[in-house]
Structure of FMN hydroxy acid dehydrogenase domain-containing protein:
Amino acid sequence: MANDHHTAPPSLALCVTTKDFEAAAKTVLPKEAWVYASSSAASGLSLQSNLDDWSRINFRPRIMRSVRLPNPTRYILGQPGSQPFFVSAMGVLGEAHPGAEPLLVRGATRKGLHIVVSTASTKSLEEIMKAHLDEQCQLGNQSPSKLAFQLYVPVDRNLARSLIRRVKAAGYHSLWITVDTSTLGKRTAARYLQAQEAVDQGGQQTVPEAAAGNAFGPALGGRPVPGSLDPGLNWEELAWITDEWDGPIVLKGIQTVEDVKLAVQHGVQGVLLSNHGGRQIHSAPSALMTLLETRTYYPEAFDKLEIFVDGGLRDGADVLKALCLGATAVGVGRPYFYAMAAYGIEGVEKCTDVLAEEVEITMKMLGVSSFDQLRPEMVNASRLLNEMWRPDIWWNKSKL
Ligand SMILES: Cc1cc2nc3c(=O)[nH]c(=O)nc-3n(C[C@H](O)[C@H](O)[C@H](O)COP(=O)(O)O)c2cc1C
């Protein structure tokens, strides 16, 4: 459990892997913030399989292929980015660092990364965009970074429409609708903390003090924010959202090949295969398993829309495994939360450097100098394929 008192983290120079940011954050974060970031649904199975499954795939590296200058540029929805990874949507970043979302965005912009900004941000979406534009200005508009917006569709559709209009007016380039959150998952560690606080205060339920002024304060205690998540959301609603937004749309939180197919049929530009970092349904498939399922049963999808993956990616090698299997790019969540919590903007930059270096050295040793040379046969996914869902047992493939 994290400390209740702020202590100095180890020197940033000692952060050699993304895991080191986690250990450092644990030493500096107040307990509520640590629990908010690290917690997951129920017993943690969904989170654990995200983490484990990347390590159950091996590469099949090729040699002597002249790989002197690998090019890390990757396009996401038509926008070039400095790397094949982006920062996944995370809410309430004011709990990680007083600089909150603007600080994360500045750090990522310096590094040319795309960032998905959460509906549940501590700061307004306009303020976050301003930080990005200010940073761009200081960089002479040389950064390829773009901001995308993650949307939780509020129950009140008028509010939803006005929110989408604000996002558009502010200049966000794509809308990532979170579709795995019909309700908030049962975040066990947050529940214990909340229960302990209630017991300590003689039965009174409280919102952690630091978050009390934030509309998304309750999220920190693992409780749904009234009106912000709608179990009534359905596929038909994509029509009005598409009309209102009039730009690229990605569905975030797809967990089966059937829903990838529906996303294609509904004409969205991308899907983010994700189990929300293991925070939503207990016993979810890992993001990687859903990628394998899609690769196996509906490979046409990769030509019809862009397929992103997030959850448990902790090494540049994991990023390349996803790309071998056809992902356009991957999202990284907690490592950025932890890096920012422990080291502020330098942490955000270093976390990017760590992953970028791992991507580069792995590319070289894999025998590729550009991402379009990555192929499914460059990984051995047999172990996971053995455990993949099989339609032929009870299910007729023609239903897909
Ligand atoms: C602290 C935290 C806050 C998050 N907040 C949101 C959110 O507001 N909206 C959302 O769609 N996903 C949210 N997520 C899920 C992430 O977008 C992403 O799917 C997940 O973190 C990826 O897994 P990883 O943390 O293992 O990299 C959050 C995740 C974390 C860790």
User: Anything to note?
Assistant: The chain has a mean pLDDT of 93.
